[in-house]
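[Automated response] Your request has been received and processed.

Submitted sequence:
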Amino acid sequence: MRIVLFLSRLITGVLFIFSGLIKANDPLGLSYKMQEFFEVWGWDSFNDFTLALSVLMIAFEIIAGVAVLVGWRFRLFAWLLLLLILFFTFLTGYALLSGKIRECGCFGDCIKLTAKESFIKDLILTALIFVLFYYRDKVKPSLTSKASFVILTATTLFSFLIQLYVLRHLPILDCLPFRKGSNLAENMKIPPGSIPDSTVIQFVYEKDSKQVEFDADHFPEDFNDSAYKFVKRYDKVVRKGNAQPPIKDFVMITESGNDTTQAILTQPGKMAVLFIKTPPAEPKAWKFGENLQQIATAIKSAQIPVIVVTADATATQNGLSYWKLQDLKVLKGDLVAIKTAARTDPALYLLDQGTVMHKWSWADFKDAAKSLGNK
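Generated structure:
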């Protein structure tokens, strides 16, 4: 039993640390995944708290993993881990059984797991944690109390500081389809060899004030035009495929409603793209306004065309006018796609015929201005 207990501690501790570190690289990703769950459950009012919850949960995963390995306050962490894994297993089980959420974000965007894979992983972890919980009184600290305290304190500081860094700058390890070196136009295409959804055509008719539904192979025996009144037809998915492009719903729409996405992404030469999600209603509240002016000056000196992509074109145009940047072209984009592209708000991209050459967060705009000024 000693070997089983040791292996359970080792596997559980390492997995929690690894999971936490992967998600600490991009806490906004977990925050958006939480919002996806909340929206499915109709709890949209909690969306404003998801980032704080994400940061706390990620920090706890790392801290708990280290605590399990060193055996620090093991009885407390055995309870906490048991409650946490039961909660995680519920979430992954719900995602699998409901089919409403395709991925659970257990290892962030760097290691994508399907709902089924996540659920199986959590079942295995649940079994391991039950072993730790049952034998919690037999686990002795591996280090002295002072050494354990120092290690846990350092772990706690690191867990929060690494997240604060990537939230201010950008993920250290960029696993998103908008990463440096990727071609956005290519990532908007369905990968070769992908399996499309399998669908059948469903017909909906009305008969005797009731709607009846059937496919082309199962028309009612008494079907006739006078008794049945056509309502609609639609494609029903009977088997999900995997024909999904890495980048979905990424559009750049002009004020007049024209889709210029492909024209921009296939345009030869360099182009700067400034992503602004939803700017403050008051333009003077733009803390990044002065840095935007520096960026605009550097881009103009480098003779690089620049566009602004935002989910709120009106507020963005007002803000740009306030900061004397009204000559920048503003295009409207999908908020979800912008959230994926810009992990900070705002974020600046340098493209070369649709390929991401560089990207900067608002906190690095001064460095961007220097870099662009040398182009």
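Summary generated for your ticket: Residues 198-239 form one domain. The mean pLDDT is 87.
If you did not submit this request, please reply to this message.
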